[in-house]
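Today's session is about reading a structure prediction critically. Students often jump straight to the picture, but the first step is always the sequence itself: look for stretches that repeat, for charged clusters, for runs of hydrophobic residues. Only then move on to the predicted structure, which in these notes is written as discrete structure tokens rather than atom positions. Here is the chain we will use throughout the hour.
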Amino acid sequence: MTRIVLAIEYDGSHFHGWQYQINTRTVQQVVEAALSKVANQPIRVFCTGRTDSGVHALAQIIHFDTETNRDLQAWLRGGNCFLPDDVRIIWVKEAVDDFHARYSAIARFYRYIILNRPMKSALIRQQATWFYEPLEADRMHLAAQTLVGHHDFSSFRAKGCQSTTPQRRMYFIHVYRKQDKIFIDLSANAFLHHMVRNIAGVLMEIGAEKQPIEWTQTLLTLKDREQGGITASPYGLYLAGVYYPERYGIPQHPIFSNLPKDAKRYY
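Below is the predicted structure for this chain, in token form.
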């Protein structure tokens, strides 16, 4: 039995999320179907984290076990041959030791993109969230720093979140503007259901000066989702990278150079 690791990217606009569902198009469904054709037998994959309907990925990490003997290029090129145009395998390698796409991860990196201009876009309407009122990126960044560190994120989790604990460690949040787009880059040991979208919704209210900068601290203290404001659209959200211990040899996004050296002890 061989364990294979892959990185995939996908446009989540026309998927009902990652996880397999009967009679519904999901990313897991099309990936497993493609790899099963290459293997000539059923393949079941495991991912770093399940993404919701409409959410994209720049580097979702998955693994699967197989008895089928194929070289890595066969998994890469054959898998892409059978995948739809909105999903692509970026690289493939054999797993090292006890690697697991989810449980071996130390940190996840998400990016949220806001198109901040008076008019909607005809080109990226499902790749970025549109916000027509002017946003102050510096104000949003300052407010976001309250969320860095270990906190109870109850005010930022979905009501239906199934996690056994609302405790998470946020490693960093960077909010910055590039022309008419605002980027929110976040990294944590793990994320609660809708956590990034709820944070983005709060920061947009602060950036539009509808709430004070201190609102993030107030929400952390309240631990009440009903006080937490809107849940931002999924279309601006990307799973952008995953950080693993070096011994697994998984390519890392450069942004992880910002992680504290002792990050792994928090997970």
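Discussion point for the tutorial: The helical segments are 27-39, 72-82, 137-144, 195-207, 215-222.
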